[in-house]
Structure formats: C-alpha cells, structure tokens
Amino acid sequence: IKPLKELADLEFLIVTWENPKKEEINHLKQFGNLNLFIYPKWRFIFNALRGFFSFRPFQTEMFYFKKVDRLFKKLIDNSSAIYVHTIRLGKYLENLNESDKNKILLDFNDSIAYHYLNFWKYYPLFFRPFFLYEGLKIKYYEKKMIKLLKNFSSVCKRDKEFILKGIDLNKEKNFYITGTNFRSIDNLETNKEIDENIITFMGNLTYYPNYEGISYFLKNIWPDISKNFPDLKLYIIGQGEKKLKNKFKNLKNIIFTGFLENPYQIIQRSLCFISPVRIGAGIQGKVIEAMSLGKLVIACANLEAIEGFINYNNILICKNNTKEEWVNLIRWVKENQDNVKMIEEKAKKFITENFSSKKVGQIYKIIFENLLRK
Fold first, then answer.
1. What is the DSSP letter of 221?
2. How far apart, in Å, are the Cα atoms of 317 and each of 54, 226, 245?
3. How many CA atoms does the CB half-sphere of 38 hold within 13 Å?
4. Over the stretch 91-126, which tens digit does the pLDDT of each residue have?
5. What's the maximum distance between 2 C-alpha atoms anywhere in the chain?
6. N or C: which end of the chain has fewer CB within 10 A?
C-alpha cells in the first residue's frame, strides 16, 4: 500500500463476512477512506446457491451485492486506476465501458482454476464433484476476464501460463508477475543453536489445504520418520489444532502449539521447516516466510515449476511425497549440515531479493504508474 500512496490518493472497498480487527481497520484508514461491507455468511451462501446454474463460478456469484455494485460504479467514475484483488469480484467488472476497463488491474493472485482442476481429488469424496465443476467454471471465467479487460497480474509465471493457455495476448493487454511478499520479522536472533531433534510446520489448520496436507503426513509419513528417528519431534504451529490433535492423539513426539504470537524462535532453532501441503497453486506464504528466516525448507509442492526455486540449491523438494523419500531427506539434512547451511544462505538471499515487501511494492508501483499514464 505504501508505494501506491506515493502515487495517488487511495480509497478501499471491502466485502466480507468476517469482522476485521480494529487495528486492521485503523491500518487501512491511515492510507485512505475505507468502505467496509460486512454481510452475514448466509447471504454469501444464498448468493452462491442462487447462481447454481450460472456460467459464473459460485465464488463470483457469492460476492456480488447490488448495494456494493452501485458504490463501486460511483468510485470508478472518480478514480484514475482500480485494483481488483481477486476474480471473485469479477461480476462487478462485466458491464463497464471501455474507458473504465482500461483503469482496472485484475489480480488473479494464483489461478483458482489451476488449484481446483489439479487438486480436486484431495478433497473429501462428497465434495470432489463440486470442486471439479467449480474448477471448470472458473477456468472458463478466467479466460472470459482476459478477453474483457486489459491489465492483469498473478503471483508467478506458472499461473499466468495456465490462465493464458490457448489465448494470444494482444499488444493492448498487459499481464504482470508480482510475486508475493513475506512479513518482515524484527529482532530475530542470529546464530541460534540448532536442535537436531526438532522439525516444524506452521499454518492455519482451519484452512483445508493445510489440514489435509498435515493430516496425510501424520497418517502416512510420520510413523516411518519416527521409527527411523525416534528422538525427532514435530512442532505443529497454528490455530485450529483440536481436530488433528484428537485424530492423532496416539502418535508420539507430535507437539501442537496452537497459535503463537512469536513462532519464529521455534522455527529458527529447528532442524528444518516442512511443508507437506499438497493442495494449492501459486507460492505458499509459509514457505517463503520460513526461507526468509534462513531456514531450510522441505516441501512436497511442485515449486520447481516456479522460477527461482531450485532443488538442493535453495530448497529441498519431496517430489513424490512418499515415506521413503521423506525419511531419506531428513537423514540427508542431519548428515549434511555444511550443505544445509549453504542452502539456507541461498534461500534467504533469494527470498529477500525477490519477495520482500519493498520488492513486491515496487512492482505494483510500476504497474500503477503505467495505468495512471493512460
């Protein structure tokens, strides 16, 4: 937000069912006027069900409210450039005139269609047809938005290529790669002594991809790791831990910490940080955050397809997510500490140079400088 404030006056329009914290509201208000619409969750569900047979995705129907649309149209008239944070708000963009379309930057973040169409099989059996159906609708809708608007962005090249598959982007259209930023952590301890018997995971466990990934890991991977390394402990950091804690109460050396204000001390002194999350497009925030601490990350996500993430250079990638592979990687980390230190140094350098708030902020600043010239 700060780099954009240097360019122009800002105004925010937010639609949500959550009640934001007072400090979050005050943070935004210091940068510009805030228009906040909070509706009960049932209104969003009703909107989605009402649009069941629409060609639009359920999520796009879910976030559409006429009152919000009226204000959005007024704000467009008085704005030189508009940032739309997600395709879920696409319905507000469908009936704009050409001059207003030129003002819009639609940020796909990561491709929701890529997420659903590649990972629907990891969701509970009952929900799989829904996610597959929704993925197909979103894929169609992402391409519709490309034809409709002129300026777009995503967090990585892989998602951009998926969205644009089969589409020739003409010279009038721009598609930017923004990356995703990590939160800078102050007062970190340096040269902290490593405990080789601790590995860590961090994530909100009420978010299904996190829950599914760590649940699969505990059921299918951890017993073999524990057998090979009986003193090794896994710290699972994040809120929403009760269900997993009850489900795996018989497993040894699993410590559920719940939400921690400062989880970074545990992560810093751990042998490594793991991300067994199997579901998701884009770039996992938890991965770049751990790498920014100078901590070795073992991830099972397909990060090699994302530019800059190089196996055994700045990250370790568990390509097949098998118990044998995880055991071998943990053993390699324990036995190759000199190599680990080099990987950690490269990881921190790579993340700092490419994903810092300053770096990502400057990319957005350049994008909006281009929009404001038009």
1. I
2. 40, 20, 27
3. 6
4. 999 989 888 988 999 999 989 999 999 899 999 999
5. 65
6. C
